[in-house]
Design brief:
Elements (H helix, E strand, L loop, with lengths): L11 E5 L2 E11 L12 E8 L1 E6 L2 E6 L2 E5 L5 E5 L5 E8 L1 H12 L6 E4 L3 E3 L1 H14 L6 H18 L2 E4 L7 H12 L7 H8 L3 H12 L3 H16 L6 H7 L5 H12 L3 H6 L2 E5 L8
Parallel strand pairs: 1-12
Antiparallel strand pairs: 1-2, 2-8, 3-6, 3-8, 4-5, 4-7, 6-10, 9-11
Amino acid sequence: MQSDDQQIRDVRYHSIKGTRIVSARFSRYNYECFQKHSHNAYSVAAVVEGKSKVIIGNKEYIGTDGDVVIINPGTIHSCNPAQDTCWSYYLFYFDRDWFEKMYMNFAGLENIAEVHFKNNVFKSKEISDTLIDLYSLFEENEILPVIFEDKLTELLGKIFTLTTIEEESENKNIPEALEAVRNYIEDHYVDKISLEELSDFSGISQFHLLRLFRNYTGLAPHSYLLRHRIERSREMIPGNNSVADVAIECGFSDQSHFIRYFKKYVGCTPGEYGAGSTEHRSSGPLKSGI
């Protein structure tokens, strides 16, 4: 059974010129709390206690103390404590566009569409220690942005140097019709989108669209819609928006439905998520001398 001392969550953010480029949290669980989902950001975590059952795509791993877990944007995954264990970790989300621009800078590239990490669970004391050090700076509310960003630059350099990365300049294997459906869902996530509507939009029968979209994204269209609504709500909650307003603005019929789905995907209620949120801000771009 869940109790207060079995879950610790602290959500923090760093923004540059109004764009939230990094969010981070520390969490501790001893119960299964996450269903399969995905994020639009790059996720990098350091496991510091216990064991975790990590499912990424169709692969399963056991993450242990000292492991680094990296999950690419859009990848269906779930991470939960292994049976009868307590699992603690530090987790950073990096804005996708910003992260890829930083990699282009690091690698001396002019154009790149996507950075794809091939190794998802591995041991790296250098990355793990630097990630934890960076989080400790988050806890210093009066820290100068330049100090935080120096450590952030150090972390990125280690990630880019100590991991195996595939550079994809174009999405050759993405069916255009399915990509159009995904974009349609993300553009109309507030609306009540039906499978029939998506079928009419794409010109693909409902039966085939359901199967093809699930194979393409790892989620059925309705599940993908819910996941996108939750991702949008996470961006809104740390502000001064009420939970009821966020629910309506993200397409949920009422607050209770929103809270139930939010906890299902995020592992805590919207109120708990917002209560632990603080934000750092920087007025200038992060220097690129990785």
